[in-house]
């Protein structure tokens, strides 16, 4: 029996949509029939992505968003719902990282990571969630067929990795944020789940996998390769659809590695 998922009539809001996984998530949801709101600070990149999606027959709208600015979050979500209709799906994807030893992390480094990965993700989800809650109670206009919030965490939130300790801490916070939101909002028909990708080859890190260090790391992985952005497509669409109605508070490792049990090399002692 053939099985397919159709997201026609749904509106998906994707943060960090200008490149990498965010761009892939937007294209995937558009191909499944959803209208997609592309949100990021890099508006020109979003316009290029919009043209690509529209060229494939999809419906996309561009909105400038800085997740570290609360006013920007409120404005972007309001603008999205004015232009596209009520948001049914949020893909909370914005994220940043730095590479350094714990003792070298400055207050500026810490804020840079946590302002985007934790604070920004929280308040984007809160703003979208409040609107979903209002519709579920009949206190706001718009139909409500169930909300879907998909937080993009990381395997680094489940397994501490060397030289990205602050990033690991931030993604662990996203994991617990997902569970907390799922607990409070699930009874209102809002499902909140997290995807924890492992190593994924994107334009941001593609050069690394060609280096000696990158090749050594890949050689340690059971499949001797890193993932591709499209490897997450099926999981994303399922979580965004009605088929995930009984999946809430799940934290799903998507790495083909299970490196929660993989011991990676540590940095040199000091």
Q: H/E element string?
A: EHEHEHEHEHEHHE
Quote the distance from N terminus to C terminus: 60 Å
The CATH top-level class label: Alpha Beta
Largest sheet, order of strands side by side? Answer: 3-2-1-4-5-6-7
Beta-strand residue percentage: 5-15%
Kindly state the number of beta strands: 7
How many individual domains?
Answer: 1
Overview in brief:
By secondary structure, this protein is an alpha/beta fold. It has seven helices and seven strands, in the order E-H-E-H-E-H-E-H-E-H-E-H-H-E.
Helices and strands in order:
Layout: E1 11-15, H1 20-31, E2 35-40, H2 43-55, E3 59-64, H3 70-84, E4 89-92, H4 107-136, E5 147-152, H5 165-185, E6 190-197, H6 212-220, H7 233-240, E7 251-254
Describe this structure in words.
The protein is of the alpha/beta class. 40% of the residues lie in helices and 14% in strands. It has a seven-stranded parallel β-sheet with strand order 3-2-1-4-5-6-7, with helices on both faces. Helix 4 (107-136) packs parallel to helix 5 (165-185). The radius of gyration is 18 Å and the shape is globular. The model is unreliable at 260-270 (pLDDT under 50).
